[in-house]
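Sequence dictates fold. Below is an illustrative record:

_____
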Amino acid sequence: MMTQFCNICCFIFILINIVFQISPSHADNAVPVLLWGGSINSDLTSAVNPFSKSTSEEFDLFLRKTLENSPPVLLYIRDNLCIEDLVKHKQHLQKVISSDSLRYFPAVEKAVNTIEDLPSYNQTYNDYVDSISDGQLLIVPISNLDVIPEMYKTIKDSSPNLIAILTGKACSYRRSERIKRDTDLYNTTGPFIVMSNRVLFYASKPLLLKPGEDEDKIELPLKPTSSDQPGKTPASSNLVMKFNTPNSSISTHTLEFMFEVETSGYYTLKTVNYKSSGTSVNEKNLTTNTDIVFPFNFSYHCSQIITFENSSISLNITNFQVQLDPKLAKDKDNIKAFDDAYDCVGFTTIPIWAGIFVTAILALIMIWALTMIIDIRTMDRFDDPKGKTITISAQE
């Protein structure tokens, strides 16, 4: 009883491994193999790793140890067999292998050829056999896995030491392999993210800076040196970013974003102090026409391009989002996340204006229709065939 319970637990564990298979994509001739029945040595349990691919040599060594007494072998071969097929028919397969010894290989190279090359077995191809003797290998091609239980039970009754093997010639299903790659520290594309002690800053593209009237716009590096500076009030804060550009005439660009508290409970960003050093030193305050105001414990987001400028110097930020004192993300250590955002969209957006315009046109059409209906006049005089004919003058 205990042995059957252990075998059932082993089968359930293997089915879970099949369903949550995490092995990479298999080669064209790498197929799953199920082997059950007979008396398989218990010391071979650790010989199979259910998460790896086995070579034909490894599988051949396993078969030689398992079949050293030449028990009868029943081989089911399917032209196309993948792990997904085993999962799909697991209820039918469990009827015949839940109480027997079971070994599972997720992927074996040239499994059919390895089994057919067993030297001590006589091969037989027959679909209608009631019993198999020792040293005999019965090969049964199948197209439907549901026929296995009935056929196996019939032969098992006359051959108690029967060992059954289910495999295929190929697997046409492939999974894409996941390859771990190192992060490119010098990548100049992608989102711009800065996370200081108090400020979480995001832009979907690198910051675009025009440092002077005769200068071209440049993309600032994605990895600046950031720090927090105190503002005018205890609640306010300044975010300082320092960008090094050694290959340019300006070696250092410094941006200081000034978050002030002008209204109780709300942060305001109006000014960015810009400093440059190199062949010449320049310092200017850049301002924006966009009203950047957001309450405490909220973030600010704007999908448009926000521009801070002063005369010939300008700074463009694409898909800007920022928050002061962000909270840690759930289930992630030391990673801060944005809270609900205040967007830069005004109250009367383009969809609202379109709705008002269409509603106004429909209202005018309805008013005109009601006016026409009210102005309809019905007849109030009728001819009497026995009386005098009604005469209507032009004035009436």
